[in-house]
Each structure stands twice: as structure tokens, then as C-alpha cells.
Amino acid sequence: MSSTELPPKSEPALRIFAMPKDANANGDVFGGWVMANMDLAGAVPAVERAGGRIATVAVNGMRFHQPISVGDLVTCYAQISSTGTTSISVVVETWAKRRLTAAQIKVTEGTFVYVAIDEHGAKRALPPSV
After folding, report:
1. Could you tell me the pTM of the whole model?
2. Is residue 105 one of the residues assigned to a domain?
3. How far, in Å, CA of 83 to CA of 14, rounded?
4. Burial letters for 14-41: b for 16+ Cβ neighbours within 10 Å, e otherwise?
5. Is 11 exposed, middle or buried (0-12, 13-18, 19+ CB in 10 A)?
6. Are 95 and 16 in contact, with CB atoms under 8 Å apart?
7. pLDDT of 91-117, one tens digit each?
8. Residue 9 domain-assigned?
9. Domain count of the chain?
10. Which tens digit of pLDDT belongs to each residue from 12-58?
């Protein structure tokens, strides 16, 4: 990652402060907490594109670049990268605004795959895109 890299200019899908309950004894946030929030962020454009219920079916290429500390403002940006007949792939970038310095650092990125489902939990076709 370049030191001159800046967060995307798009609207964030999710913003949340890392709290003490989300961290280990060293004050670093658990990777599972980060992944759960990235899944929620990725679901935002996926639900809009699917026009209804979705389910997460895969996480591809998850990469943790830097730790997140208690007190950091965590922001997730999510963008659809591709769609299939029933599936939607969403790239999620996670940035941390450091509590003490206000520096913004890309901390994590990954691709989440969702599938559109009906009221019974079965796969369904995506509606035509507009």
C-alpha cells in the first residue's frame, strides 16, 4: 500500500468505532469483528442489487494489512465488482482513522460473495439491472 493512498471518495457503507469489547488484551481488534463488519458493509450494495434477501456464500482474498486499535474510527467502503445469475461479488475496503493521529490507513480488504435468496432460503435469479 502506498503511503499516499487515500480512502475512496464514494459514500461509506458502514462506519463504527472499535471498542474495548472488540479487542484482545493488547488493544488490537479481533479479525472476526473486522470480518463481520465487512460482511455487513458488503451486504448494503448486494441487498440493493438483489432487490431483497441475500446470503453470504463466500469470502475471497481477505487480506489484513494493518491492525485496528481500540478507539479507531473504522470505515468500510463496498462496491459491486461482478454479478452472475444469482450471485453478487462485492469488494470491501476497510480504513481506520487513527484515534491519536487522525491518519487514515487501509487496514483490510476482501471480496464477499452473496447469493439472492427467496423467502424459503432457496437461490433465486437477480432482477434485471436498471
Report:
1. 0.93
2. yes
3. 22
4. beeebeeebbeeeeebeeebbbebbbbb
5. exposed
6. no
7. 999 999 999 899 999 999 999 999 999
8. no
9. 1
10. 999 999 999 999 998 899 999 999 999 999 999 999 999 999 999 99
What is the 3-class SS of 92-114, one letter each residue?
A: EEEEEECCCCCCEEEEEEEEEEE
pLDDT, tens digit (0-9, with 9 covering 90-100), for 46-55: 999 999 999 9
In a domain, 67, yes or no: yes
- The domain containing residue 71 runs over which residues? 14-116
Cα–chain center distance at 98: 18
Q: What is the pLDDT of residue 4?
A: 65
CA separation for the pair 86, 114 (Å, rounded): 8
* Residues near 56 by beta carbon (within 8 Å), at least 6 away in sequence: 39, 42, 43, 112, 113, 114
- CATH number of the domain residue 103 falls in: 3.10.129.10
Residue whose cell numbers read 478507539:
71
Establish how many alpha carbons lie within 13 A of residue 68's alpha carbon, considering only the half-sphere containing its beta carbon.
Answer: 30
Do the domain assignments include residue 123? no
How far is Cα 109 from Cα 65, in angstroms, rounded to an integer?
8
Q: Is the pLDDT of residue 126 over 80?
A: yes
